[in-house]
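Just curious: can you write a single protein's sequence together with how it folds?
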Amino acid sequence: MNTHHIRLTSSKILLLTILQAPEYVSFQKGDWPISGEKIPDMVALTMGFSVQEDLSWPGLRAGQLFQRPRANVLVVVRGVDSLALPQNVASYPLENPVPFNLDSVAETVHSLFAEDTPVVLQLAPSEERLYMLGKANAVFEDLPVTLQQIRSRLSQDGSVLASLPLNSLNRNAEADLLFLSEVQVLHDITALLQRHRHLAQDHSPDLYSLELSGLEELGRRYGQDSPQYRDATAILANVLQKFGEDVFGLYGDSAVVEVVTVKSFEAPLTRKSRSILESKQISNPGSPYNLAYKYNFNYAVIFNIVLWLMIILALAVIVISYNLWNMDPGYDSIIYRMTNQKIRLD
């Protein structure tokens, strides 16, 4: 087991913005706050998974039983209160911001769809932290992870430096380079997904969790009133808007994309993560983790067919039994009617 010390949420303002969502995942517009610790439950419910405690939050309504999104993408942006993301489904303030992560959702996806090997990608470029499970190991094997790899990627063909309006940003400065590296990672993720479009056509849902801290470093280096910070904020807002649209389109308009913006992180969180090499042990039915049986994607369909068939048969038995109990043998039964006529003839 690898142990990473990261810092996650505790701030003055924490905003959850739903960038993209299919019509059958119903987010209601309103100022309903949601606790930071409930974000993993919200993500799990949008993907059709059950949670230990009911989420009593009016922002998300119950969706359709047979339609669930093929992917969920959560992007955490550190160092800013909010971003100008006008084309969104809804946005909500968060109360009681506490440390959260999507490890529980990732474990559910991997355990229920182990045979289909779904994509599970958790990435934080600033900390060189990467978690990949399932098909992600093959699809994103060329994704630059370390800062050195990302900086090398910025000098190659297809770099975002050729298309971004850098303005006051300096590609040679440390803080500026970290921010641009995170933008490059978002660009490379969509590029790899376009190259592997088959991922959006399987039955297993995919999970992406990205944490960006480039704005936080720019705020520390130049200040939040600096032109570098303002230019980076505008760039990131446009990049995230396009990133959400691209991912949503690649998954056939069947993906949920959320963005969490938080000014600063104060509460330290010790995160215990699985090594990539442990994925085989997790899917092993004989492992000591007491995992449930392997989930079949057709379980919901089979369950409903059996359920409603049993209900129909039970109603049929009740109706037939009621009519037999109240039947008059002399008038309603042809057997008794024929016997009665024969007695009269004799």
Notes: The beta strands are 2-7, 14-20, 34-35, 71-78, 90-95, 119-124, 129-134, 206-212, 255-262, 268-273. Residues 330 and 340 are 8 Å apart (CA to CA). The chain has a mean pLDDT of 80.
